[in-house]
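Researcher: We plan to redesign the surface later, but first we want a full-length starting point. Tokens attached.
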């Protein structure tokens, strides 16, 4: 399973203001192999153009959406993707569909139910509850479990502490890789800890998912750990961040980072 990070930043990055920064991070988005995209945000085509990958989305078959915040769901990006790949299936919660409909974007869309198993091509996708608030009480943001080519991936976009139901699901999945958001970093005082993760949370989460007993086995031995969704205002430069996370056996992803699991 190939993972390509198209963006690894949080919503406090600004394309017009910050793109000249040496370590500019686009809004968080990721491609799995060449046909599954997580979160069609407004920066995905900027990534393709900047990295000289004009055919990046040519084989796209499935787009899964975590929630309706504009850094994760951009109707114009969806419109462009749909034009490139008319048979592409978009999937997520009902509020994300409403956002697209309000913007006049018509696509082949499936509303997902948490903890149901869905087959998209060769991938099995299970949406899970996130601990995140979008400003709408009728929206349930989603996290995703992806099974493909005999490997399992946990993708955690915007979320704080995991809801109990989500933990009960992932606790026995034996993941080969887990991607955690790390918006808050070391700023444990920041108000965003109620809906995002910081380093203190990450440390506890890692101890929990790597603990094995007769009830819980969330990760395989050799599971790879990555972080994404790093806030511009709450993180140091990438080298410093990587050094800080190295003792935890965690690699912070960066825009353009490609790895295999």
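Model: Full-length starting sequence:
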């Amino acid at each position: 399973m190939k993972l390509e990070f198209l963006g690894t930043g949080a919503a406090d990055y600004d394309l017009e203001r910050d793109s000249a920064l040496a370590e500019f991070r686009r809004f968080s988005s990721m491609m799995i192999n060449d046909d599954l995209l997580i979160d069609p945000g407004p920066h995905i085509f900027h990534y393709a153009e900047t990295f000289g990958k004009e055919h990046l989305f040519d084989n796209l078959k499935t787009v899964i959406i975590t929630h309706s915040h504009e850094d994760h769901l951009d109707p114009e990006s969806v419109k462009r993707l749909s034009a490139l790949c008319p048979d592409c299936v978009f999937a997520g919660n009902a509020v994300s569909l409403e956002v697209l409909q309000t913007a006049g974007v018509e696509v082949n869309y499936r509303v997902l139910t948490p903890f149901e198993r869905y087959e998209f091509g060769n991938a099995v996708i299970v949406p899970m509850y996130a601990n995140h608030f979008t400003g709408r009480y009728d929206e349930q943001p989603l996290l995703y479990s992806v099974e493909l080519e005999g490997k399992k991936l946990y993708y955690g976009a915007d979320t704080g502490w995991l809801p109990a139901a989500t933990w009960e699901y992932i606790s026995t999945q034996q993941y080969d890789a887990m991607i955690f958001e790390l918006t808050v970093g070391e700023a444990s005082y920041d108000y965003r800890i109620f809906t995002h993760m910081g380093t203190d949370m990450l440390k506890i989460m890692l101890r929990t998912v790597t603990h094995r007993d007769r009830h819980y086995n969330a990760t395989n031995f050799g599971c790879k750990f990555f972080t994404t969704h790093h806030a511009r205002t709450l993180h140091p430069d990438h080298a410093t961040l990587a050094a800080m996370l190295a003792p935890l056996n965690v690699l912070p992803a960066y825009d353009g980072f490609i790895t295999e699991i």
